[in-house]
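Let's study my pick:
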Amino acid sequence: MATNTDKKLLDVPNAQNGFSNQLIETVNEAQIDSPNMTHVATTYPGISLMVGVVVIAVISIIFAGLIIQPLFALPEQLEYWSIRIWGGIALLWCLLEAYEYGANKRLGYCLREQDITMFKGWLFRKISTQPICRIQHIEVKQGPVDRKSGLAKLHVFSAGDLTQTFIIPGLEKEKAEFIRNTILHHKELQQRG
């Protein structure tokens, strides 16, 4: 239970306890500058689109092979509907790949002294900022396509839950390693004080 002295300390900003949490007035004229965005590698959107198209093409060839294979005949009704359903799925996949291509062209990041920000999305924009002091660990990963194209993904893990973790894909490998080392260096300097 709070005493009279405690209530006075809580009501007075910057009192002996040194803590204040006053209301901040927002003014229409005041604007906060957004961090400058650095785009990911220019080759990344095309490579991502190519991978998506190859996946749908391989699945389509396998599906077509199952329909026209000579070992057993499918009922006409099943063949008729399966072709149309797969056509719809393939069309939807292609539309999603086109959207992802546009979104990947707008993918970027900003590394500052105190935080790293990721910008993503095309129709639905998302800006995620992670303070460097909250970063638990950071990884540079490469899959087979990334290795072939000289790209890498930067995984930033927060000291919290998985929703605070983000991935910046499509970075040149050297740049991803530079960002990782820079964040680790700044984190070490912050911990030293």
